[in-house]
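User: Modeling request: complex.
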Amino acid sequence: MIAMFFPISGVEINPIYLAVLGFLIGLMGGFFGVGGSFIAGPMLRVLGLPWNFAVGTDLAHIVGTSVVAAKRHRALGNVDLRLGLIMALGTIGGAEIGAQSIQALKRAGNINFVVSVISIAIYSSVAVFMIWESFLTLRAQRKGGRKTKDQKTKSKKSDETAFQHITSKIHRLQLWPMVSLPVSGIKSISLWTILIVSFFGGILSGFLGGGAGYIRMPLMVYVLGVPTHLAVGTDLFEIIISASYGTFSHAIKGNVDILIALVMQTGAAIGAQIGAISTQYFAGPKIRLAFVPLPLIGAAIVLYTLLSGHKA
Amino acid sequence: MKAEARRALRSFAIELLLYGMLIAGYFLLVLHLLGPSLSGIAKNHIRLYALLAVALILGQSIVLEFVTTWILRLLRGRSE
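Assistant: Request completed. Predicted assembly structure:
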């Protein structure tokens, strides 16, 4: 099939590439609770979209992927609606600041270089941190002795991390108002902690594109103490709200080619279903360890486009 | 277990084929009918375009979720 012209962004791309890319992103989205922007954004760049269009279009595509994956996770009992709604508020505020920063860089004319360098630094840091933490957790579990089949089944959704002591300290912070999140197993946590975590994720979402699940999902596990399965599902639910707002905001700024997002979403719909169903068969630390190569691949693609000057 | 995996893989392949055919038709519809009109709206009425962008992606994802679930159920029903 030949390349097709997308009049809104003025680029020619083979729609099959877009659907296959969407499928892979959907698969990851359903499994890891991330929008997949660390792969989709750089890949859209490789296919010829300028950064500002890659950021905005990817965000639109993520809305669709998240709807499919979140619906499936909801059926599996992996969504904390209260936490998701609170986080959406913080994310929207942060996303607006991130989107404004993109506009400032667009005006200054050095958007591609700055966004590339920042994305490489963030993706690499997330991957290195998660390798270290998952490795520590799995080692501690091995030292703690082998579990029986029954214990394994019980603990698949209740989670352990190497930062449990830090998470407990964060839960003890008495910064009014305090909220209770029974679905996530959190008795009491400051509303501000949740808002700060989501605000930070929102800034990265608006700046680098996507739902910033690559940073928010780990933060939900390590800082808020949400079990990995619930972090995955809740993150997806939250992304529907925040990414819809982000899409609207970027579209007004002329950064969204919705036709490209619609084509990508055709592949993502089926990938997201398969990914979400697959989470049932893996425990938390293993899901986090499997997540590690993804931001590294994203960083490698951005580095490639930066060094080769590919369609810059 | 092997037979079960083979059955699942076959169902998945049929699903991809069915879905692929639906999507090929949909590509033509979206790209050829929506393309020029959406491009015009994006140039002249950016706020309307932004609203339409969100509505289209939400609408499409709901429809596709329904279609993929329906195909999965259809195939599962046959294999049982």
